[in-house]
Write a structure and sequence with these properties.
By secondary structure, this protein is α+β, with helices and mostly antiparallel strands. The protein is 31% helix and 22% strand. The strands form eleven sheets. Strands 4, 5, 6, 7, 12, 20 and 21 form a seven-stranded mixed sheet that branches. Strands 14-13-25-24-23 form a five-stranded antiparallel sheet, with helices on both faces. A three-stranded antiparallel sheet has the order 3-10-11. This is serine-type D-Ala-D-Ala carboxypeptidase.
């Protein structure tokens, strides 16, 4: 009886334990079902995450355009190829293959389009399968594929081959205002980030905000019918409009490249501004770089804003302005040129030539006499007053130009010799942009304008203007009367037989006011380098001289010169070529009679006109047009009726039977204009001049026709400029 009681108690105890365990487990299951958590771990979130796919919708980076809306930097869609090698991704291979089953065929088919060795492709596919990887890629060769390559591969219908669309920052004009526009590249997450220039300066505004799509998938990563899709919209980056003019910049870039090729200088800077507003119309440096191809970049710096230099004799403009403003300048007063010695200095200030004798101050400015400027500062203006003028022209501070890494020069003015040297641009340093800002006061009735390059920022999501830059006056260091007198003196530097710019700097259609500069370079045993090439040769010029519409400053450092060449030769080629063409392009009225060797024409009416008659008329004025097709009537052109055209321009005439012309040797600008006229789907590769076109000559053209234009850089021709004497 006792044994039976013990047994019942034991059974009851274990039954109680079982029921207790069952209740605990049941409660735990109910709790997990209710809360979806285990020890703080979110099971429901984990399960949802396992079923969900999350795709990033990359925001389109804002486009950078010139003042007329021409794209200078934009996102370009490229493609990355990948191959699925996991056999499990094809659950029913008899019906449909979703992975690469035939490695040999796939490798052989891809090799020609990717321009990749067949054996290498096979190795990648086999290695991926052996390592039980789901998918494989093909390195750099499989990235940045063009749409033409993608379409060619898709036409092969290879199982398991797929593409990812990506954005690549593309610069349609190649090496074009590269130090202004800057560089942006994709990072590891395929987001594009600004690195230099405006791309870096306005990276936050250009970048935009990525969106996303979240949806549920099955075990094979296929989208479910009831996918519970959640979309977070992207916000595209802001568009940035610059003050740069694409056509003027192109003229400038061509001139810089020719001088770089011919004279092999260490550095070149050139800047064109509107002195009435401060807008930078064109800006270029050499060495430069092509942001589409970053091989052998030797200069990332925008020297115009980041590299102060001793300006040399261009500084005499502001010394003269100070003397006139103070009322102590008499252009007809004589002084003895050659050397100038005061007790406070050990060695006299020399002129670069010592045999002029007694000349007027007016002639001294024309001849670029150091002695004339030193005497004005020491005996007429007074050093302390002159220092005040240097500060009034803001040579002691940055301009605040809206470009990164601005570096101001330094006024060196502690000792008498430094005060005299500052009068003619030695010792004291300025950045080119500082000198340009100061020179706007001369060209703008004494009012100094702050230079700027960002014209407008627009939100493409709302089409609202976020900000725009208005012209800003930063001071009036001199009066209008003084500015007019300085302009007259600068014009005499160009026109007078004794002027240093005479017969060197010359515009056929416009009067010109300017000042040459030859600055020593620090670094020799005596403080400066020696030798006829070891200088920074420069010129600041304004035209038309009575009311300047454009101001340009050019510097060329250490060019390689022939015995018969002066340092003004490379500088004058850049200035003369760019300034003359820019003024014509901007429809500035010439104030000189056009010379016989300059061909200028007002574009006649061409639409609905007979093709033969239009061509004959243009060729009669020295213009050889590019005729599209063999139709009897003209239906369109890249130049509007009434516009001024030069003999160097390419005039495109579209006939009523358009066919593909031979564009080989044409510039990117011409090809782009042609594609716009014909509404073609243009894809560009390379830079320079057209080498290959994907559409055969004579092919009938229609709207949306795809054209791949392959450009290459030809050697620049040697510029033809007159030999100048020192």
């Amino acid at each position: 009886m006792k044994k039976k009681t013990t047994t019942n108690w034991t059974v009851t105890f274990f039954l109680f334990l079982f029921l207790l365990f069952f209740l605990i487990v049941s409660f735990r299951v109910i709790y997990i079902q209710a809360t979806g958590q285990v020890q703080g771990f979110d099971l429901e979130g984990w399960a949802t995450q396992q079923r969900e796919a999350d795709t990033t919708i990359h925001a389109t980076r804002g486009t950078i355009v010139d003042r007329n809306g021409m794209a200078l930097a934009q996102d370009l869609t490229v493609h990355r190829i990948y191959a699925i090698v996991d056999e499990d991704f094809s659950p029913d291979p008899e019906k449909r293959l979703n992975h690469v089953a035939d490695i040999d065929q796939t490798a052989e088919s891809l090799s020609q389009i990717l321009e990749m060795d067949t054996v290498k492709i096979k190795e990648i596919l086999i290695e991926g399968r052996e390592n039980e990887r789901f998918q494989v890629e093909f390195g750099q060769t499989g990235q940045n594929l063009s749409r033409e390559q993608k379409l060619a591969i898709e036409a092969l219908e290879l199982p398991g081959i797929h593409f990812i669309d990506e954005a690549k920052r593309y610069y349609p004009n190649g090496m074009f205002a590269s130090h202004v526009i800057g560089l942006a590249q994709a990072d590891d997450t395929h987001d594009i980030t600004g690195i230099t220039g405006i791309e870096a300066q306005l990276d936050d505004q250009l970048a935009g905000i990525n969106g996303s799509i979240t949806y549920q998938t099955d075990n094979y990563n296929r989208r479910l019918l009831a996918a519970n899709e959640v979309i977070e919209e992207k916000k595209d980056g802001y568009h940035v409009k610059l003050t740069i003019d694409q056509k003027v910049q192109t003229i400038l870039e061509d001139a810089l490249s020719q001088v770089e090729e011919t004279f092999e200088p260490e550095r070149i800077t050139a800047t064109v501004v509107n002195p009435k507003t401060g807008e930078i119309i064109a800006l270029g440096n050499r060495p430069s770089y092509n942001p589409n191809d970053l091989e052998d970049v030797s200069n990332w710096y925008n020297d115009v804003v980041s590299t102060p230099i001793e300006p040399g004799s261009t500084m005499k403009i502001f010394t003269l302005a100070a003397a006139i403003e103070e009322g102590v300048y008499n252009p007809d007063e004589y002084y003895k040129s050659g050397t100038y010695k005061i007790p406070e200095i050990n060695r006299p200030v020399p002129d670069y030539r010592k045999h002029w004798g007694s000349i007027t101050f007016a002639e001294g400015f024309q001849r670029s006499s150091n002695v004339a400027m030193a005497k004005l500062v020491w005996e007429k203006i007074g050093p302390s007053t002159f220092l005040n003028y240097l500060k009034a022209f803001h040579f002691d501070q940055e301009t605040g130009v809206d470009l990164p890494r601005e570096q101001a020069g330094r006024i060196v003015f502690n000792y008498p010799i430094e005060q005299l040297n500052a009068a003619f641009g030695q010792g004291t340093t300025v950045s080119p942009i500082q000198l340009i800002q100061a020179a706007t006061a001369i060209a703008n009735d004494g009012e100094m304008m702050k230079p700027f390059v960002i014209k407008e920022i627009t939100d493409p999501n709302t089409n609202k203007v976020i900000s725009n830059t208005e012209p800003t006056s930063v001071g009036t260091p001199i009066s209008k009367s003084t500015a007019d007198q300085v302009l007259s003196a600068m014009e005499s530097v160009v026109t007078s037989d004794t002027g240093t710019a005479h017969n060197i700097f010359h515009l056929p259609s416009y009067t010109l006011a300017g000042k040459t500069g030859t600055a020593q370079i620090s670094g020799g045993a005596s403080g400066y380098l020696s030798g006829r090439e070891n200088y920074i040769f420069s010129f600041v010029g304004m035209a038309p001289s009575d009311d300047p519409k454009l101001l340009m400053y050019v510097t060329v450092k250490q060019p390689k010169l022939k015995e018969t060449e002066s340092g003004s030769k490379p500088v004058s080629f850049i200035f003369n070529h760019v300034m003359e063409n820019a003024l014509h392009y901007l429809n500035i009225q010439p104030d000189k009679e056009i010379e016989e060797d300059v061909s200028e024409l007002i574009m006649p009416a061409v639409k609905k006109q007979a093709t033969a008659e239009v061509v004959e008329n243009l060729e009669g004025h020295g213009v050889k047009p590019l005729v599209v097709g063999e139709g009897s009537e003209i239906v369109g052109s890249n130049v509007q009726m009434g516009e001024k055209i030069l003999s160097t321009q390419t005039i495109i005439l579209v006939t009523n039977q358009p066919t593909m012309p031979n564009l080989k040797g044409e510039s990117l600008r011409t090809v782009t204009q042609f594609a716009d006229l014909m509404d073609l789907d243009l894809e560009v590769a390379g830079t320079g001049y057209l080498e290959k076109q994907s559409v055969a000559i004579g092919t009938e053209l229609s709207e949306g026709h795809y054209l791949l234009a392959d450009f290459t850089d030809f050697e620049a021709e040697e510029p033809e400029t007159p030999t100048a004497n020192d």
